[in-house]
Amino acid sequence: MTYDEDLRALYDAQTYAAAAPHDAIDRLRERGPVVWVPEPALHGWPEGPGYWAVLGHGETKQVLRDAATFSSNLAGTQLRTPTRPEDLAFVRQMMLNQDPPAHNRLRGLLSKAFIPRAIAALDAEISSRAHDLVQNVAYKGQCDLVTDIVGDLPVAVLASVLGLPDQDRGLLYDWSNRVIGYQDADYASSAAFNPATGSDMARAALAYRPLPDASGALPDPRTRAGLADMYAYAQALAEYRRVEPGDDIVSLLLHADFDGPALTNDEFETLFFLFAVAGNETLRNGIPGAVLTLIEKPDQYDLLLREPDLLDGAVEELLRYWPPVIHFRRTATVDCEIGGQAIIAGDKVAVYHLAANRDPDVFDNPHQLDLRRTGVDHVSFGFGPHFCLGAHLARRQMKSMLGELARQLGRLELAGGPIRLTSNFQQGLKSLPVSWNLP
Predict the structure, then answer these.
(1) φ and ψ at 335, to 5 degrees?
(2) How many Å apart are CA 397 and CA 203, to the nearest integer?
(3) Which site from 183, 223, 275, 296 is most exposed, i.e. has the minimal number of CB atoms within 10 Å?
């Protein structure tokens, strides 16, 4: 491939529907840890100004730790800046898109819900749900791992964490599909939730679900209009939890004693968005990705089945090998330098977790899966001020599900072709048919 083709492979969402472009990344990295990527009009996306792709591990950490120089707030954390000023103002309220010190206020409150002691309280539920999800299909001998087993674990745990009625948890599928999969035709208009099975809150909120316009286009899912049904549900849930508080994050947020201004309605809604989407998709993509990786690396799969005590370290190596998040964007606030490359104030800078996790300057044989690898310094959960608050919860669920699959089903084999998500933001699987033979 030519240099321009490698740049397009990095940027083009269709690339990732086939495979992650690791060969292209390796070739690009030969020119340096930071490369300029043009943004041509592509697959319905308008032309963009271009951005700096950060491919090195050390450079990625440099960007992520320095919020003063590389802002999440100026234009958000997605490659595409919202086109309307009011939409940009809206996304800038999200904790994910804030910089310190504003970011610190909300993060400090939420961290109380995500300390290991708080996650430990969910251990029994996580273990029980993972066990039951696998047990429910064990007799079949085959299933789609994504839709029949894995997808429901993070959704069920999130519903518990957020205090959603159990019958409404299917809404989390649709909301996250529409946000994360908006480049994928199968996910962009996801509306699988059946209102007949949901609560009154769910049925009322579904009346606000956006519909395609005359050209078939839906509103940008990052805007209020693009997820009007989710925000309507968040408002209704907040009203309920103000009167009937429970042992959940929504109740914690609504009844907390703040040091400073009280939580606004917009802040609450954007925090609900963060949990409903980010807390869901990472696991829905990370666990199937880990299983597919093991199937494709049979020697390592056999090692894990023989030595289950390797599971903790295996989770870290699998996260390194298959990071669910491909990149995150920042905006340079001043003229600066990354990896010897001059950056101009206002430039877009995207750190590629996919590339940093396979930087040969940090990882020996980076394209080799090694479940005995120690000290795995991956950046799959980010780094610096925005390090993922739910990392401990994600690890716990991933370990539990991989352990149950190994104990109950043993070795999994492909029973059909995996179907990857079309997205240049999330590395995911929409379908992973697997089979097994019980002893």
Answers:
(1) -65, 135
(2) 30
(3) 296
How many CB atoms within 10 Å of residue 193? 20
Q: Where in the chain are the domains?
A: 3-435
Name the residue among 333, 342, 328, 331 with its Cα closest to residue 36.
Answer: 342
pTM over 0.90, yes/no: yes
C-alpha 388 chain-centroid distance: 10
**Spans of the chain below 70 pLDDT:** 112-118, 256-262
Show the tokens assigned to 235. 């408002």
Q: CA-to-CA distance for 22 and 29, rounded, in angstroms? A: 10
pLDDT of residue 258: 57
pLDDT digits (tens, 9 = 90+) for 70-81: 999 999 999 999
Angular region, 253: left φ>0, alpha ψ -120 to 50, beta rest: alpha
Query: What is the per-residue pLDDT for 113?
Result: 64
Cα 252 to Cα 245, 247, 415, 417: the distances in Å are 8, 8, 44, 43
- Name the β-bridge partners of 348: 331
194 is written with which tokens? Answer: 């059946």
Strand (E) or helix (H) holding 291: helix 265-296
Q: Which two tokens stand for residue 95?
A: 């904790």
CA 284 remoteness from chain centre: 8
Count CA within 13 A, CB hemisphere, residue 217. 7
For residue 42, give the DSSP letter: B
- Which among 327, 375, 377, 381 is positioned nearest to 353, based on CA atoms? 327
Those residues whose C-beta lies under 8 Å from the C-beta of residue 336, and which sit 6 or more positions away, are: 69, 342, 343
**Tokens of residue 318, six digits:** 């699998």
